[in-house]
Amino acid sequence: MKLALSLFLLASVVLGEKSLALTDYKIKKICKKEKRELTCIKNLEEKRSNLQKGNFIEIPVIPYKR
Predict the structure, then answer these.
(1) How far apart are CA 46 and CA 58, in angstroms?
(2) Cβ atoms of residues 43 and 37 within 8 Å
(3) N or C, where is the chain less crowded by C-beta within 10 Å?
(4) What is the 3 state secondary structure string of the chain?
(5) Rounded to 10 degrees, what is the CA torsion of 44, 46, 48, 53?
(6) What mean pLDDT is reported for the chain?
(7) How far apart are CA 58 and CA 26, in angstroms?
(8) CA angle at residue 46 from 43 to 52, to 5 degrees?
């Protein structure tokens, strides 16, 4: 039991450092449809850098419309 717990903690520490942030290509592809493309790119790159530093980022939630 202690071995399983220690392996779980070790795996979470090793894998927890990697964040799945957007690549430059994905950012440009997302912002291509926006009206202000350069502002969109700047905002997403800023959020990506904050995420990689370990800071919290704000994620908007869009309500479901029936």
Answers:
(1) 11
(2) no
(3) C
(4) CHHHHHHHHHHHHHHHCCCCCCCHHHHHHHHCCCCCHHHHHHHHHHHHHHHHHCCCCCCCCCCCCC
(5) -170
(6) 77
(7) 19
(8) 140
Tens digits of per-residue pLDDT, 43-53?
A: 989 988 888 88
Residue 59 · residue 48 · CB < 8 Å: no
Q: At what angle do helices 24-31 and 37-53 cross, to 10 degrees?
A: 140
Give, in order, the Cα–Cα distances in Å from 39 to each of 24, 27, 35, 53: 14, 11, 9, 21
Calpha distance 9→30 (Å, rounded): 35
Percent of the chain with pLDDT strictly greater than 90: 23
- Rounded to 10 degrees, the C-alpha dihedral 46/44/24/53 comes to 40
